[in-house]
Protein backbone atom coordinates (compact mmCIF):
# COMPACT_ATOMS: atom_id res chain seq x y z
CA UNK A 1 0.00 0.00 0.00
CA UNK A 2 1.37 3.38 -0.99
CA UNK A 3 1.66 5.93 1.79
CA UNK A 4 1.55 9.68 1.34
CA UNK A 5 5.31 9.73 1.83
CA UNK A 6 5.96 7.14 -0.89
CA UNK A 7 3.55 8.94 -3.24
CA UNK A 8 5.45 12.18 -2.74
CA UNK A 9 8.73 10.37 -3.32
CA UNK A 10 7.65 8.96 -6.68
CA UNK A 11 5.95 12.23 -7.65
CA UNK A 12 9.22 14.12 -7.12
CA UNK A 13 11.27 11.39 -8.79
CA UNK A 14 9.10 11.11 -11.90
CA UNK A 15 10.49 14.17 -13.79
CA UNK A 16 14.06 12.91 -13.33
CA UNK A 17 13.09 9.41 -14.47
CA UNK A 18 11.34 10.79 -17.55
CA UNK A 19 14.42 12.87 -18.35
CA UNK A 20 16.71 9.84 -18.00
CA UNK A 21 14.47 7.72 -20.22
CA UNK A 22 14.14 10.37 -22.93
CA UNK A 23 17.71 11.67 -22.89
CA UNK A 24 19.67 8.51 -22.02
CA UNK A 25 17.90 5.18 -22.38
CA UNK A 26 15.91 5.77 -25.58
CA UNK A 27 18.93 7.20 -27.50
CA UNK A 28 21.08 4.35 -26.15
CA UNK A 29 18.68 1.67 -27.38
CA UNK A 30 18.10 3.48 -30.70
CA UNK A 31 21.83 3.94 -31.24
CA UNK A 32 22.45 0.29 -30.48
CA UNK A 33 20.00 -0.67 -33.21
CA UNK A 34 21.45 1.79 -35.74
CA UNK A 35 24.93 0.37 -35.10
CA UNK A 36 23.65 -2.85 -36.68
CA UNK A 37 22.57 -1.10 -39.89
CA UNK A 38 24.18 0.80 -42.76
CA UNK A 39 22.22 3.97 -41.97
CA UNK A 40 23.70 7.10 -43.58
CA UNK A 41 21.61 9.70 -41.77
CA UNK A 42 19.05 10.16 -44.53
CA UNK A 43 17.56 6.83 -45.54
CA UNK A 44 16.62 3.99 -43.23
CA UNK A 45 19.54 1.60 -43.23
CA UNK A 46 19.25 -2.10 -43.88
CA UNK A 47 20.15 -4.53 -41.10
CA UNK A 48 23.72 -5.84 -41.51
CA UNK A 49 24.34 -7.42 -38.09
CA UNK A 50 27.81 -7.17 -36.60
CA UNK A 51 29.50 -6.10 -39.83
CA UNK A 52 30.09 -2.54 -38.57
CA UNK A 53 31.73 -3.85 -35.38
CA UNK A 54 34.03 -6.21 -37.26
CA UNK A 55 34.97 -3.38 -39.58
CA UNK A 56 35.65 -1.02 -36.64
CA UNK A 57 38.11 -3.44 -35.05
CA UNK A 58 40.05 -3.46 -38.33
CA UNK A 59 39.94 0.34 -38.74
CA UNK A 60 43.50 1.55 -38.15
CA UNK A 61 42.46 5.20 -37.74
CA UNK A 62 39.93 4.25 -35.06
CA UNK A 63 42.37 1.98 -33.21
CA UNK A 64 45.04 4.70 -33.33
CA UNK A 65 42.57 7.23 -31.94
CA UNK A 66 41.72 4.85 -29.08
CA UNK A 67 45.39 4.35 -28.26
CA UNK A 68 46.04 8.09 -28.42
CA UNK A 69 43.04 8.72 -26.14
CA UNK A 70 44.29 6.12 -23.67
CA UNK A 71 47.78 7.64 -23.62
CA UNK A 72 46.34 11.12 -23.21
CA UNK A 73 44.07 9.96 -20.37
CA UNK A 74 46.89 8.29 -18.42
CA UNK A 75 49.16 11.34 -18.48
CA UNK A 76 46.32 13.80 -17.88
CA UNK A 77 44.75 11.91 -14.98
CA UNK A 78 48.07 11.54 -13.18
CA UNK A 79 49.10 15.17 -13.65
CA UNK A 80 45.69 16.61 -12.80
CA UNK A 81 45.39 14.71 -9.53
CA UNK A 82 48.97 15.41 -8.45
CA UNK A 83 48.68 19.14 -9.18
CA UNK A 84 45.16 19.37 -7.71
CA UNK A 85 46.28 17.70 -4.48
CA UNK A 86 49.29 20.01 -4.22
CA UNK A 87 47.09 23.07 -4.79
CA UNK A 88 44.54 21.83 -2.25
CA UNK A 89 47.29 21.28 0.31
CA UNK A 90 48.60 24.79 -0.36
CA UNK A 91 45.30 26.64 -0.01
CA UNK A 92 44.30 24.73 3.14
CA UNK A 93 47.29 26.18 4.94
CA UNK A 94 46.82 29.25 7.13
CA UNK A 95 47.15 31.92 4.44
CA UNK A 96 44.65 34.36 5.91
CA UNK A 97 42.76 36.53 3.42
CA UNK A 98 44.82 35.13 0.51
CA UNK A 99 43.14 31.71 0.77
CA UNK A 100 39.94 32.72 -1.03
CA UNK A 101 41.89 34.61 -3.71
CA UNK A 102 44.13 31.62 -4.48
CA UNK A 103 41.17 29.24 -4.63
CA UNK A 104 39.37 31.54 -7.06
CA UNK A 105 42.42 31.95 -9.31
CA UNK A 106 43.13 28.22 -9.44
CA UNK A 107 39.47 27.38 -10.19
CA UNK A 108 38.89 30.05 -12.87
CA UNK A 109 40.24 28.01 -15.88
CA UNK A 110 37.43 25.51 -15.33
CA UNK A 111 34.88 28.25 -16.06
CA UNK A 112 36.16 28.76 -19.62
CA UNK A 113 34.40 26.77 -22.35
CA UNK A 114 36.31 24.06 -24.16
CA UNK A 115 36.25 25.69 -27.61
CA UNK A 116 37.36 29.08 -26.27
CA UNK A 117 40.00 27.42 -24.12
CA UNK A 118 41.34 25.61 -27.17
CA UNK A 119 41.66 28.82 -29.15
CA UNK A 120 43.37 30.57 -26.22
CA UNK A 121 46.02 27.87 -25.98
CA UNK A 122 46.33 27.70 -29.76
CA UNK A 123 47.27 31.39 -29.69
CA UNK A 124 49.76 30.73 -26.86
CA UNK A 125 51.44 27.81 -28.60
CA UNK A 126 51.50 29.38 -32.07
CA UNK A 127 51.98 33.09 -31.45
CA UNK A 128 53.42 33.50 -27.96
CA UNK A 129 55.80 30.56 -28.24
CA UNK A 130 56.99 31.71 -31.67
CA UNK A 131 57.72 35.16 -30.23
CA UNK A 132 59.70 33.59 -27.39
CA UNK A 133 61.64 31.50 -29.91
CA UNK A 134 62.50 34.61 -31.96
CA UNK A 135 63.67 36.56 -28.90
CA UNK A 136 65.59 33.78 -27.15
CA UNK A 137 66.61 31.64 -30.12
CA UNK A 138 65.39 28.51 -28.31
CA UNK A 139 64.17 25.92 -30.81
CA UNK A 140 62.10 24.27 -28.06
CA UNK A 141 59.36 26.88 -28.60
CA UNK A 142 59.25 26.53 -32.39
CA UNK A 143 56.53 24.68 -34.26
CA UNK A 144 54.33 23.69 -31.37
CA UNK A 145 51.21 21.78 -32.53
CA UNK A 146 53.00 20.96 -35.79
CA UNK A 147 54.31 17.58 -34.64
CA UNK A 148 52.55 14.61 -32.99
CA UNK A 149 54.72 14.90 -29.85
CA UNK A 150 54.19 18.60 -29.18
CA UNK A 151 50.54 18.33 -30.24
CA UNK A 152 50.04 15.62 -27.64
CA UNK A 153 51.66 17.64 -24.88
CA UNK A 154 49.73 20.72 -25.95
CA UNK A 155 46.47 18.85 -25.37
CA UNK A 156 47.71 17.53 -22.02
CA UNK A 157 48.76 21.01 -20.85
CA UNK A 158 45.41 22.49 -21.88
CA UNK A 159 43.36 19.79 -20.14
CA UNK A 160 45.47 19.78 -16.97
CA UNK A 161 45.23 23.59 -16.76
CA UNK A 162 41.44 23.40 -17.12
CA UNK A 163 40.66 20.54 -14.73
CA UNK A 164 43.17 20.91 -11.89
CA UNK A 165 41.26 23.71 -10.16
CA UNK A 166 38.02 21.74 -10.21
CA UNK A 167 39.64 18.65 -8.70
CA UNK A 168 41.35 20.92 -6.15
CA UNK A 169 37.95 21.83 -4.68
CA UNK A 170 37.11 18.17 -4.13
CA UNK A 171 40.41 17.56 -2.34
CA UNK A 172 39.87 20.70 -0.24
CA UNK A 173 36.50 19.44 0.99
CA UNK A 174 38.03 16.13 2.09
CA UNK A 175 41.10 17.76 3.65
CA UNK A 176 38.89 20.09 5.68
CA UNK A 177 36.94 17.08 7.01
CA UNK A 178 40.02 15.46 8.54
CA UNK A 179 39.61 15.84 12.33
CA UNK A 180 42.00 18.40 13.79
CA UNK A 181 42.42 16.21 16.89
CA UNK A 182 44.20 13.54 14.84
CA UNK A 183 46.58 16.06 13.29
CA UNK A 184 47.29 17.70 16.65
CA UNK A 185 47.96 14.31 18.26
CA UNK A 186 50.42 13.40 15.50
CA UNK A 187 52.16 16.76 15.90
CA UNK A 188 52.46 16.26 19.66
CA UNK A 189 53.94 12.81 19.06
CA UNK A 190 56.73 14.42 17.02
CA UNK A 191 55.53 13.71 13.48
CA UNK A 192 56.89 16.15 10.90
CA UNK A 193 54.67 17.68 8.15
CA UNK A 194 55.70 15.05 5.58
CA UNK A 195 54.88 12.19 7.94
CA UNK A 196 51.52 13.78 8.77
CA UNK A 197 50.69 14.13 5.08
CA UNK A 198 51.74 10.66 3.90
CA UNK A 199 50.78 8.66 7.02
CA UNK A 200 47.55 10.42 8.01
CA UNK A 201 46.14 12.76 5.37
CA UNK A 202 46.83 10.64 2.29
CA UNK A 203 45.13 7.44 3.59
CA UNK A 204 42.13 9.48 4.70
CA UNK A 205 41.86 10.99 1.20
CA UNK A 206 41.13 7.66 -0.49
CA UNK A 207 37.40 8.47 -0.91
CA UNK A 208 38.45 11.68 -2.65
CA UNK A 209 40.68 9.71 -5.02
CA UNK A 210 37.68 7.55 -5.98
CA UNK A 211 35.71 10.65 -6.99
CA UNK A 212 38.49 12.60 -8.69
CA UNK A 213 39.88 9.64 -10.63
CA UNK A 214 36.42 8.81 -11.95
CA UNK A 215 35.73 12.41 -12.99
CA UNK A 216 39.11 12.96 -14.64
CA UNK A 217 39.03 9.60 -16.43
CA UNK A 218 35.52 10.10 -17.81
CA UNK A 219 36.27 13.66 -18.93
CA UNK A 220 39.62 12.74 -20.48
CA UNK A 221 38.12 9.94 -22.56
CA UNK A 222 35.25 11.98 -23.99
CA UNK A 223 37.20 15.18 -24.77
CA UNK A 224 36.28 16.63 -28.15
CA UNK A 225 35.93 20.42 -28.26
CA UNK A 226 39.46 21.11 -26.96
CA UNK A 227 40.84 18.63 -29.46
CA UNK A 228 38.93 20.34 -32.27
CA UNK A 229 39.97 23.88 -31.34
CA UNK A 230 43.62 23.18 -30.56
CA UNK A 231 44.86 20.69 -33.17
CA UNK A 232 41.81 19.54 -35.18
CA UNK A 233 43.37 16.08 -34.94
CA UNK A 234 46.46 17.10 -36.91
CA UNK A 235 49.02 16.75 -38.15
CA UNK A 236 47.75 13.87 -40.32
CA UNK A 237 45.25 12.71 -37.65
CA UNK A 238 48.12 11.95 -35.26
CA UNK A 239 46.36 13.81 -32.41
CA UNK A 240 42.84 12.70 -33.29
CA UNK A 241 41.02 11.41 -30.23
CA UNK A 242 38.29 8.77 -30.30
CA UNK A 243 35.40 11.24 -29.96
CA UNK A 244 36.65 13.23 -32.95
CA UNK A 245 37.12 10.08 -35.03
CA UNK A 246 33.53 9.04 -34.31
CA UNK A 247 32.19 12.53 -35.05
CA UNK A 248 34.04 12.77 -38.36
CA UNK A 249 32.83 9.32 -39.38
CA UNK A 250 29.24 10.31 -38.68
CA UNK A 251 28.99 13.89 -39.93
CA UNK A 252 31.82 14.21 -42.45
CA UNK A 253 31.70 10.76 -44.04
CA UNK A 254 27.94 10.37 -43.42
CA UNK A 255 28.38 6.81 -42.15
CA UNK A 256 26.03 7.08 -39.20
CA UNK A 257 25.57 3.37 -38.57
CA UNK A 258 29.30 2.70 -38.71
CA UNK A 259 30.02 5.67 -36.43
CA UNK A 260 27.40 4.44 -33.99
CA UNK A 261 29.13 1.05 -33.76
CA UNK A 262 32.37 2.86 -32.89
CA UNK A 263 30.48 4.85 -30.26
CA UNK A 264 29.11 1.66 -28.70
CA UNK A 265 32.61 0.14 -28.57
CA UNK A 266 33.94 3.35 -27.03
CA UNK A 267 31.13 3.36 -24.46
CA UNK A 268 31.85 -0.23 -23.43
CA UNK A 269 35.57 0.57 -23.02
CA UNK A 270 34.80 3.61 -20.82
CA UNK A 271 32.32 1.63 -18.69
CA UNK A 272 34.79 -1.22 -18.13
CA UNK A 273 37.64 1.14 -17.21
CA UNK A 274 35.36 3.12 -14.86
CA UNK A 275 34.12 -0.02 -13.09
CA UNK A 276 37.68 -1.33 -12.65
CA UNK A 277 38.90 2.05 -11.36
CA UNK A 278 36.04 2.44 -8.88
CA UNK A 279 36.38 -1.13 -7.58
CA UNK A 280 40.14 -0.74 -7.09
CA UNK A 281 39.89 2.61 -5.28
CA UNK A 282 37.02 1.31 -3.15
CA UNK A 283 39.18 -1.56 -1.96
CA UNK A 284 41.91 0.96 -1.12
CA UNK A 285 39.38 2.92 0.93
CA UNK A 286 38.57 -0.16 2.99
CA UNK A 287 42.23 -1.09 3.55
CA UNK A 288 43.06 2.52 4.48
Helical residues, percent:
over 70%
Roughly what fraction of the amino acids lie in strands? under 5%
The profile of the biggest β sheet is: none
Q: So, CATH architecture of the domain at 60-242 and 273-287? A: Orthogonal Bundle
CATH class of the domain at 60-242 and 273-287: Mainly Alpha
- Determine the CATH topology of the domain at 60-242 and 273-287: MetI-like fold
Low-confidence stretches: none
> What is the mean pLDDT?
88
Structural class: mainly alpha
Shape descriptor reads: globular
CATH superfamily of the domain at 60-242 and 273-287: MetI-like
Q: Roughly how many Å is the radius of gyration?
A: 23 Å
**Terminal residue distance:** 43 Å
Q: Counting H and I runs of at least 4 residues, what is the number of helices?
A: 12
Beta-strand segment tally: 0
The string of secondary-structure elements, in order, is: HHHHHHHHHHHH
Pfam family, one: BPD_transp_1
Transmembrane segments: 9-29, 72-92, 104-124, 152-175, 196-217, 263-280
Organism: Candidatus Enterococcus testudinis
Keywords: Cell membrane, Membrane, Transmembrane, Transmembrane helix, Transport
